[in-house]
Design a protein that fits this description.
359 residues; alpha/beta; TIM Barrel; Lyase, Ornithine Decarboxylase, Chain A, domain 1; 2 domains; 11 helices; 31% helix
Length: 359
Amino acid sequence: MLDNPKGKLKIETPALLIDLDRLEENIKKMADFFKHKKARLRPHFKTHKSSHISLMQIVAGAKGMTCAKVDEAQVLVEAGIKDVLIANQIVETCKIQRLANLAKIAKITLCVDNSHTVSELSRVAEESGCTIYVLIELEVGMKRCGVETKEQAFELAKQIVNAKGLVFEGFQAYAGHLCHKTDFEERKKGVLEAEDMVYSCKTFLEEKGISVNEVSGSGTGIYNIQGNEDVWTEIQAGSYVFMDTEYCAVNLGFEPSLTILTTVIHKRNGYVVTDAGLKVCCQEKGKPAIKGYPDLVVSSLSEEHGKIIDEGGLLHFLQKLEYIPSHCCSTVNLHDDYYCVRGESLETVWPVSGRGKSR
């Protein structure tokens, strides 16, 4: 336990911890899965927002990184990552200009779903003297962005192919709505439905002479389904490095490596209070679990406090506990640093280098 009697590990709480052994095991497990697959792993930066972990994933075999914002792409490029996909719609001219600057020193790929963005991308790319790679986003069930028909995809692809400064790569087909379904057959059924849409669009374009080289998408919850199919060429899994309570319910074989270290600051009959609340642990997917105490419940989180029901009196004043968050990605964005531990020893501290990079 982190509160060992000799006090080998002294970290002020609340603090975001990484179990390095588990992190490394998770990265290796996912990398090993893709060693002999057609699809390549392109992990998502939004989970860990760490340049250190990104480089670990690249060394393990990832082809490049995925991110959601230009800010994040800049962090990755500055860290030496040479192949970055922004799996999102970037439509403001000021952001496209920033994107073009990054495209001069790294391969930058962007998603589009409308003619106006394609025109603006082409104009800025030509003026800047760079090349921007483009995926057409398909609507495959997320009900967010993306074109909805093969005809729309074809018209947009024609425009991209003929646009200066742009290279048409293929499709973004992200089915994140399937990732947390606990029933494997239900997840697989949804993947096959998404695959029908992708295959229809791909065939339609290729019959008209437009090559589709990449189909990028997927996530941790469906990596082992889409990664085994012939359609997807890139898998954007992210949460597998850390896991959280929502993903643990899906039983994917990865172990939680991310926790929040907290101290019991008050004890009363029936409950204790800790120093970790909403400002360090999100709860949009539910309350956190308590590592090592599966039967205890975090009953509430306020801004600075957590309340744990402890009718059996298992916990004591000043005890160190670890929360397993319900959603790792949004919890990480609340912190400045990772405290990286191996066993009971603090090995290093890493900055959350992409924290707050939301533009």
